[in-house]
Amino acid sequence: MNKGSKLAMGIAAISLLLVGCGKATSSTSSKSSSSEALSGKVTAVGSTALQPLAAKAGANFQAKNSKVNLTVQGGGSGTGLSQVQAGAVSIGNSDIFAEEKAGIKADKLTDHKVAVVGMAPVVNKDAGIKNLKMAQVKQIFTGKITNWKEVGGKDQKIVIINRAQGSGTRATFENAVLKGASAVKSQEQDSNGAVQKIVATTPGAISYLAFSYFTNKLQAVSIDNVTPTDNNVENNKWKIWSYEHMYTKGTPDKATTAFLKYMDSKAVQNSLVKDMGYISIHDMKVTKDAKGTVTQN
Amino acid sequence: MEQTNFQLKQQKTQSNDWSARLHHATRATREDWLGKGISYLCIGVIILVVASMLWFITSKGIATFTQNHVSLGKFLTGTDWAPDQGKIGALPMIVGSFAVTFAAAIVATPFAVGTAIFMTEISPNKGRKLLQPVIELLVGIPSVVYGFIGLAVVVPFMRSVVGGSGFGIISATFVLFVMVLPTITSMTVDSLRAVPRHFKEASLALGATRWQTVSRVILRSATPGILTAVIFGMARAFGEALAVQMVIGNAAIMPKNLISPASTLTSQLTTGIGDTIDGTLPNNALWSLALILLLMSLFFNALVRVIAKRGQLKHER
């Protein structure tokens, strides 16, 4: 603890210094912005699910616009939403609609949907499960089914690995599967990576992951015989999916607008998005609103 | 400038010279002032940082009770932790934190004291050449590495030996045991070395065996130091976040046994802080957990001071 507090003090001291430096640099950059080339500072913070895509797209964007200083950070959807609401960052990345998060004034923010992510239950391979009914998934996560043999698997205890409360992935999963029922208290992990590793190694484990985190070490589960694939998400046959949002507040500056436009361009949507395991927003045949109502495009 | 002034004055009158010298600060005095000023400034900044951190955490931490009107009693004794639904009983985390801390200290202390005795009394030479570097190495390993080893080795091991999922207090205890061992050992070594040589010589001269001397004289007179070492180790265990979070399972439920997933104050903080919104109950509740951590570390520090004072009195007697 002693070390920790010393470290914290150090960080506080350094950040004081950085604040000073930051002021100096921002004043110089505002001078140079009078030239025609796109310049400025764009900070995108939030969702760790969106972070890899945003970081890669950001790097490509910066290669073309060398005067723009673009930073992408994680921190979680909650951080992204609250930071953009506070005006501390230009873009708040989120897995969930701002309307779904208590304490966020969604009408003050502008939503830019940049990709779609499908999620599916994953189980440890030993459990012998490949398909479940939606009702069974709900019963497992609410604690009504506790052994795999009840749903046609091995005689093995079910170990539920949840995501942290407030996580965007968890919110998406619970909206689509539990529909208001509350999940049984269980293990909570704070990242997709941790869930992936733990489900792969823990006998009887079940959790849920974004499609891009599937590996051959774990079993992705079909629900009602619908397989978790991009195509099934695009026509809403597969119900567990969410948008990746980039939220801005008020009128974003030129550099931010240009970056958001780039995110929506074919260059990103048709190659980068797909390469990195996301689903292109252009391919979606349905639209979902903040209340979860799905309409055909 | 100052020197030319001085020379001028010197030329003017010899009798005035001494009065001028006495009435004006010399170069050395001014350096003295400068040095003093710099150190006061540094101290001031440090005090400011510490005070503002205390104020910040406290003001954020009590918002749960002042803004969200959760009663302190319910917060400390409630067992239902679901901040999104407005339920914030922190007892499972408090119990979890204390359980892993005490368990780790209880397991680590005998090993630490044994190692320290070996290093100071039994084989000081080997101790300095072999064990000292090993212990220093253990201190330097970052906690995420301990956590990763815990996740890759300890958790599967516990799963095969004691059953369950392998995540739980027992795995956390094991990881923390390795993490606090070097802290406790090196501080115990210091306190054993600080035992006056004549204590040992007198005991041996009276015919006590080596074991009697170690157990009844050296350990006895080093007890305050060893206790301080244990408390420092506990403070480290209590505040450790990452490694514990990776192996304890983070289930906000009252720990019923050592092998089912539990959670600690720190593990809840690290898992939850990114997904909460400033100023809402889930966020404030996490600050309250941080406040408990802060108060506990102040308590540990105070305890160390009390023990150190008592120890001094003993030596004087």
Short overview:
Chain A has 297 residues and is α/β, with parallel strands linked by helices. Chain A has 9 helices and 13 strands. In chain A, strand 6, helix 5 and strand 7 form a beta-alpha-beta unit.
Give an overview in words.
- The complex is a heterodimer of chains A (about 300) and B (about 325).
- Chain A is an alpha/beta fold and about 300 residues long.
- Chain A is built from 9 helices and 13 strands.
- In chain A, strands 1, 2, 3, 4, 6, 7, 8, 9 and 11 form a 9-stranded mixed beta sheet that branches.
- In chain A, helix 2 (about 50-65) links the parallel strand 1 and strand 2.
- Chain B is about 80% helix and about 0% strand.
- Chain B has a two-stranded antiparallel ribbon with strand order 1-2.
- In chain B, helix 6 runs parallel beside helix 9 (about 170-195) and helix 7 crosses helix 9 (about 170-195).
- The longest helix of chain B is centred in the last third of the chain and has 36 residues, at about 280-315.
- Chain B is flat, with a radius of gyration of 28 Å.
- Chain B has about 325 residues and is an all-alpha fold.
- Chain B contains 14 helices and 2 strands, in the order H-H-H-H-H-E-E-H-H-H-H-H-H-H-H-H.
- Chain B has helices spanning about 1-10, 15-25, 25-60, 65, 70-75, 90-120, 125-140, 145-160, 170-195, 195-205, 210-240, 240-250, 265-270, 280-315, and strands spanning about 80, 85-90.
- Chain B folds into 2 domains: about 1-60; about 75-315, Orthogonal Bundle (MetI-like fold), CATH 1.10.3720.10.
- Classes of the chains: A alpha/beta (about 300), B mainly alpha (about 325).
- At the A-B interface, helix 1, helix 3, strand 7 and helix 6 of A face helix 3, helix 8, helix 11, helix 13 and helix 14 of B.
